Amino acid sequence: MIPLYTAEMAKKIDKTLMEDFSLPGTVLMENAGRSVASHVSELMKDKNGKVLICAGPGNNGGDGFVAGRHLLNYGYEVKLITSLPMFELYKGDALINANAFIKVGGNICFSNELSDLKLEKMIKDADLCIDALLGVGFKGAPQGEIARLIEAINKAALVVSIDVPSGVDSSSGRVPGVAVKADVTVTMHLHKIGLYVAPGCTYAGKVLLADIGVPPMLGALTYNTNCFLWNEESSIDALPNRPLDIHKGNRGSVAILGGSDLYRGAPLLASMGALRAGAGIVYMILPEKVYEQTGQFLPEAIGVPVRSDEYFLTTKALDAVSAIEDRIDVLIVGPGMGRREETVDLVVKLWQEYPKNMIYDADGLYALSLNSAALDRRDNVILTPHEGEAGRLLDCCASRVHENRLEATERLSLKYGPVVLKGFHSIIGDGLRYLVCNAGSPALSVPGSGDVLSGVIGALYVSGLDPVDSAGLAVWLHAKAGENLSCLEGVDGSLAREIADQVRFVMGDIRYAKEKNRLGRRVGKDGKDTPAWF
Known about the structure:
Layout: E1 2-3, H1 7-20, H2 25-43, E2 50-55, H3 59-74, E3 77-82, H4 92-103, E4 107-110, H5 116-125, E5 128-132, H6 144-153, E6 159-162, E7 184-188, H7 201-204, E8 206-210, E9 227-230, H8 232-238, E10 253-257, H9 266-276, E11 281-287, H10 288-294, E12 302-306, H11 317-323, E13 330-333, H12 341-353, E14 357-360, H13 363-370, E15 381-383, H14 387-394, H15 398-403, H16 405-415, E16 419-421, E17 427-429, E18 434-437, H17 449-461, H18 467-489, H19 496-516, E19 521-523, E20 529-531
């Protein structure tokens, strides 16, 4: 896993590098700007060579001056616009490098002297625009000339941001005002949280880690973080072993409690997710009427009908759960169960009295939100809300959750227990450790996708992983399955059952990588190695 850092941590680490490793700020700025120039030159191989740099008032602007100087040396045509009204307002290392940029022939314009038409023309004429306006320490909404420059940059053909897209909070991913939409972000020395947590990650584009002259972990050893990026390597490390003599009983059993007259398919999709992710035995505990209509569609799952004349679950289901409790390793509560009062009573009673591992999804979360004051936190129950469900659980609106996803995950995990906050770059946390999934696709935004995910989490939870790692692996597999579907079929028209099918293939790819130490390859139908989709 890749550690992610806040702005405050990054500043402390920079201070450590300067004081303990005898690297002055001018050296760090020189290395940062040179690295940006190197990455830009790679992007400009097929371009005419016109670069426009928009520089802000601080060290981020200083990095832009250094990058501009090196790009001039590479032979590119470089223009620079500063947000400051006069050159003399630059200070320290930024002023040193601003002077150096001018002395090698750099051209500086002041944004307040440029009309909107002139600014737009300069942006349009450039092959690439470098955003060097605001650094990792900035918080709040950009104002004045900086906001104006951000809006202009967003009309550029290709945008590279230095350290963090201007307007994105590097510690949280919040975007309180206008922000640069970068194609590439070259970040310095350490990965920042805001580049990977939504909505910030949607502004960062491809993130590249800049070499500033020291190993990336050198300054970080003194400062611990509790937030990590979950990626392919994390998934390979966490993937459960499958010995040659394994049988279905060793794979663990998952039970899905759900279904109603309106949502007959949700438990089936959760069951498909669990089976495709490797669960050994899957039970579907359904209202009898629903079981009669749908139970035969997935013969690999064991149907457990709850005797009733109703199409929904009530506390009568407790007897069905108790009858097979010793055979259940994880109980998934919620897929398609509806929101009737009797069903809510069942969900709350399970939270309060059922001692074994559980996953709460969909309408199970709705029931919790109605009774949150009466619930104690549980370490062995994983919640899987989307932003709307998270808002109900936290008694706030979904938009507030969207704007503060990491904070919302922390609040949920401290109040209820381990949680998966679903969405692009889903976040997993338990109050002590937080994981950000480095994958996702619009292909996942289809009915039943969340039901499949709950089943995948269940299958990995029964494999012996702790709640956070099981959810982290499951979320990544589910996200990569969506990416695979996007590559194969496009982002529209995917079916949830197809996501479940792709989970199996993604697991096969990373299992091959785990066994052969070759990431991203698997054995094709012809018996030969074939590249995987990621």
